[in-house]
Fold each of these.
Amino acid sequence: MASRSMFFRILWKLLGASRGRLAVALIALTSGAAICSALLNVNLDAERKLTQEFRTLGSNVVIAPPAGGGDAALADASVLDRIAALRLPRIVAAAPYLYVAANSGSQPVILAGTWFDQVAKMNSWWKLEGGWVSSRDDREHCLVGFTAARQLGLAPGSSVQLRSGDRAISLTVAGIVTTGGAEDNQILTNLDSAQALAGLSGRVSLVQLSVSGTPPEIVAVTRTLAENLPGLDVRPVRQIAAAEGTILGRIRGLIFWTIALILVLSMLGVLASMAALAMERRRDVGLMKALGGTVPRIMRLFLAEAGTLGAAGGLLGFLVGVVLARWIGERVFGVVISARLEVLPITIALTVGVALAGAFPLRLLGRVRPAEILRGE
Amino acid sequence: MAPLVQVEQLEKRFGEVRALDRVSFDVDAGEWIAIMGPSGSGKTTLINILGGLDHPSAGRVVVDGLDIGNLGERELTRYRADKIGFVFQQFHLVPYLTALENVMLAQYFHSITDEKEAAEALARVGLGDRLRHVPAELSGGEQQRVAIARALINQPKVILADEPTGNLDEANEAVVLKLLRDLHDAGHTILVVTHSHAIGNLADRRVELEHGRLARISVPSLAKE
């Protein structure tokens, strides 16, 4: 017990003895830890924020009847109730679609019946000229895809008559949408209207889902849906999932390598200070060995000194990093990035590791020969 | 009774240079030996080997029954902690530790620390009121007295002092010599490397070296007669 208290007494004195050099090492460690902490905070929060943002970029899971079933290739609209009943929090939006082959005058056109409120949630990036159809129950308005509008000569405010067999509906164009996808060739309207025109009440062609999360989390949701919706195909949209995965992977990789580089630079800073410190401490180590100090016992003191410095640098760096992460979040992602406590132990562990690696010159002190040091060589 | 220290045909070579050349002598427990000779005669090399800081090239050195030429690094470290008390010309105190902590440092590497015992050791060398002073706040004589307290704290078998008064003024030299004399009177075995004939005359015997060889062993009290 007395020896342990002496250990801490010497350690305390060591920390106070070379304040200048240790301050330089502490600055290097704190700077490195601050950037690590900021990037780790950004990584954790940005991943969450990015996956949320990805969910406004279109659906990433599609539920449809098995292909090649003719009229049977339509699902019962009750599938939407079954999806809702599963209460999966990762499902951001679910939009049913019923595709109907219709004619506007003599021109064939695809009419897609859907829920506009859900479509809006998962496609906020669509370019719109005119207005959106704000209500799911709006049976009077439609959106027209950019290409279809050109072919049919439609503009916001125009009326369009659609026929399918002996059924017809009349709609007013609320807006023209440019999506870069199949919707550019379609007219989108209320689901009930499309079902009425096709005479397919209570039927849908497919359901598009927007599921938030990382690729593995999306696969997990897909699996749950497939288990609970027998007779239907539940497929992730591979290209989107893969693209999201690639983006997240690249951001993660960039952050990982930046952290690695920063830690190496911090270690070099610590190494420079510790090399100078080691020269100052040669005489002390020679003396301690002459007094009967074993190399491990002496080295424990110096490594504890480096470790304490690392822990202090890690703690300070974490605090600075939280502020830095907030700033980066606002500047780069336009969001407030909150401090994540799980980053604290990681930052401290990394900084202590860097401090111990940077203390390598102090380890070389174990080779000091006391006879040479004590006679002043 | 076997001598406490036995040096037999001791040799130490640094490359081609023979720092010690077949030196032999014994020291009995409680003796005060002055190791004398001109610069480069091998005095410090001899004391370093006796203190386990250096290895002999040939010959045998037995201290308190331990043949230190056969000891490995770890055993030599233990030997230094258990059996030897060093006093250096340059004092060699740790500058950022107080006088008390410098003494406790020797306890720490020996076994366990005892602050009260360390304070008493400093009081015995007249530094009871300087416990919390760091070396920079002490005079040369006071620093050397801290070094003596540190050398004694673990009750070593042998005290090895290398020019203990070499850096001191006359007044402080007298204080340190009195301390050494008191230690000798208390039964401690002391080997002192010195250039000073005054100190040599206080010893029981003088071991004189020249060019690494034992030139003579003399008894100052007989020389005076």
Amino acid sequence: MVTDAVGVGHVHSASTGFIRKYIFSVDHKVIGIQYLLLALFSVFLGMALSLLMRIHLAWPAHKLPFLGGGLMTPEQYLALVTMHGSIMIFMVLTTAPQSGFGNYFLPLQIGAEDMAFPVLNMLSFWTTFLSLAVMVSAFFVPEGAPISGWTAYPPLSAVGEQAGPGQGAGQTLWVIGIAIFCAASLMGALNFITTTVDLRAKGMSLMRLPLTVWAWFVTAILGLLAFGVLLAACALLLLDRTAGTSFFIPGGLVFTDQVLIDHKGGSPLLWQHLFWFFGHPEVYIAILPGMGVASHLLSTFARKPVFGYKAMAYAICAIGFLGFCVWGHHMFVSGMSPYSAFAFSLLTMTIGVPSAIKTFNWLGTLWGGRIQFTAAMLFALGFVSLFVTGGLSGIFLAQPTLDLYFHDTYFVVAHFHLIMGVAAIFGIFGATYFWYPKMFGRMLNEGLGKVHFWLTFVGVYAIFMPMHYLGIAGHERRYADTTGVGYLAKLQPVHVFITYAAIITIGSQLIFLFNFLYSLKWGKKAADNPWHATTLEWSVPSPPPFDNFGGKHPQIYRGPYEFGVPGHSEDYIPQYLKPEKVSEAH
Amino acid sequence: MAPTITEHIELIVAGHGGGTDLPAGGGDGDRPGGSRRVPQRAYFTLVQLLLAAIVMFFMALTSSYIVRKGLGTDWQQTPLPPILWFNTVILLGSSLTIHLARRRERAAFRQWWGLTIVLGLTFLGGQLAAWKQLSAAGMFLHTNPSSSFFYLLTAAHGLHLAGGIFVLFYVLFRNWRRSQITQETAADLAAIYWHFMDGLWLFLFALLTLGR
Amino acid sequence: MSRRSPEHGSTSTALALTVFLLFFTAITVYIFIKKLWWFPPAITDEGHEFDAQFFRTLVITGIVFVGAQVGLALAVFRYRERGKPASHFEGHTGMEVVWTLATLVLFVGLGIYAEKGWASVHFIGASPGALPIEVTAQQFAWNFRYAGPDGKFGRTKPELVSASTGNPVGIDPADPNGRDDIVSPGEIAVPAGREVDLLLKSLDVTHSFYVRELRLKQDAVPGMEIHLHFTANDPGTYELACAQLCGLGHHKMRATFKVLSEPDFEKWLQQQEAANQ
């Protein structure tokens, strides 16, 4: 029974009622699954929105039946752009890898019974749920969802209906939804950091933490420090929209020959600084857990220790720290000081170094291994390939002189989809195939998993590689259609190709959905440690009991990636295996 | 005295019992089955992290203030209502009373703690009075950027302080025997937050006064 | 005890992955070498420097791209499960130091080298004799103003903006400097070989001035006046398209950008002046 707001739970007995057990549960495992379900819903919603965008871009003259039999209007297209980005980034990439898998497996991997503050944990999920509800409600208000992109630059996002449909109630709901999300993320970050710092089992020193835990830990620190800034920005934007203030709105604006008289002196650039000070750490929040998962899976399924474990841990920390120093690279052409631009550029190049270290070390982990091509491993391998491709386009964008051409073109769209969207999704898929047996006590179907991998891997490259080429040809982004500008006409066949690829790839995700749901009931029953892995979660039954370790206090005797140690008959030594047991069995 | 972070035995290792922070008159024997142990220092970690997040929020507002002030020509001095000085003294007083409360037991603790709550509420009332005075003088949220920041910063601080007052009530009235931490520890945690709110107000007040 | 799991059957999967990675790498390299989708030709000296820096970056990232994808492909094939035990090594400090330093030098070096191109656009302003052209962006059109023989722009006021009465940028008739200003809606011309100093303004929301052939882009931010200078060398007609989401008409917000020889430019300017009357 747990009673109070700050999560001072004492008896962690199994709750009985359905509501307490599944709805308002304080068990980190249930909460983790709740987050994953929220992300699952959101990713299908986000994909549906992008599918509508792609169909419109490929066949703009095609009447769409579900739009009342008409053509898609620019306000509809831009609303899709805005909500696709917002839902995918906040409700999928910020939730599933961290709040979903992190919630479930952080306590297990460090040997804790639960998160430090279970009630706070429960509150963080339901606050996230509320934020999703508020954001989705923007679709249903009279003027529709906002049209200013997930980046919501003022004055477009600040002046209200004058700037166009969707900029009325829809935009206000969006701002409120995001602000609620900030609060939810802060709550989650508090729990993750405290748990990692204070609840580790005996023997679980920092340098014996699985890299997944390192990633969740640093990600939580990023979230703790970044979301407060976004919350402040949202507060200012909300006041500009509703209370007549002028934080971001300059004076003398003219809309359709009418002068806007109630605002003056504000700075649109101020929003950009605040937003991107949050926004850049946010993209590392999206990808770091995936990097931790990739390291974990590559090691487990190559049956080899992670190459350069210490460097990997330090690289995660370096990426986290430098992630706060590079936000200006989103603002090279914004009117910001060109000298600051140069400084941001060099820092951005520097952050490429720990990323490169991780890539080299992933290859080093594979080198000399005995690779088992499980579905989880395939997604981890795909992650490495996608991370390289997506990361390298960043080298172009990090140079302001090149960004002068590429900013706000499809080259940027290609870059962030590959490095953030797709690579992180592959991290999520890898984590799902790996941990599903532990979470649900059943195996996912490996054959379907492999089909899912191939269709998705080929598909995402087919969708996003051509976008680089569109960008090189100068194709601007966020264009509701491509008939207004002459030089875009001959790029239309590329749009058609991308849309076909998107239809196939998005369709293939139904295979995953089917596998996920079917295996819940009819999957092969899972043993405690089907992958012969080394970390603590595999020492308990699948699924684990309510208090994780059955009242026992686990103890750790070695690092997390002891695979293929010479002189032993088993090719792995779990972290939790007592030393005397090791010499007995080997 | 609240144990420092480095003094703790990790309860999860020590198992049941042991450690220096069991609730007085409680103990594991009272609870059926196994009991979860979250070490006391985790609560201190939580409060420190919370303060870090709050600092980032107010730093964003502060840098917005500085940037906005430096731009354009429409920055007009907002005359600060003198009651703010009174409010500041009240809040400083409340930090003193909460400090005194922590050094006392039972009835004396409750009296000083209660006085802190009263002073906190007085501060909030005083802030509202300051708002009233300012709006009577024709300065509203939207009047000019200086007034916008005045209302925004005082409101943001006030909301966080109100949260603190809620926590003070909670420390006073919750049944601490059924908790993993003692009322003493809870009071220590609340006091850290309270002193921080006091310091934050001093910073914001200085910003508003000097940056007028 | 070695573990063999037939369902993780190595060779076919490894082969498929290797082949796909190599194929994908090859296609990508081919597309870049053949320039199947490419930039339009640059028309300024800085534009050519851009192309050179792009090429340098492409070569370096290309080598890393090919190396990493091929390395992954090779590792996947060579080290597939074949019943042999894995090698056991946990790192190699020497190699790690080497590739860390190499990456640092390469990336930061590339960044420093790129500074030249950035400096010529933004660290240095336009030279004193450059032709000033005011660019006013609005939802959803571009209007351009030339200063006329006096070389001075007349004052503008937001409340005077009126597209319907032919004053789209809001020139104040009370200011004598504005009498000879020439406004060209939707079309900008610059003389070939002469430096131009653009002054970017916006009436309502943030827009962005983007001409591919110049290899330049600059946001036009309301409340700010931002300079952008260049010298276009090659006569022709090009497109200017807005590159910052500005509302419903963002995709239609284009203008014509002309580079004309000096005599043609003078003629063009006279035509605009006549149209203003």
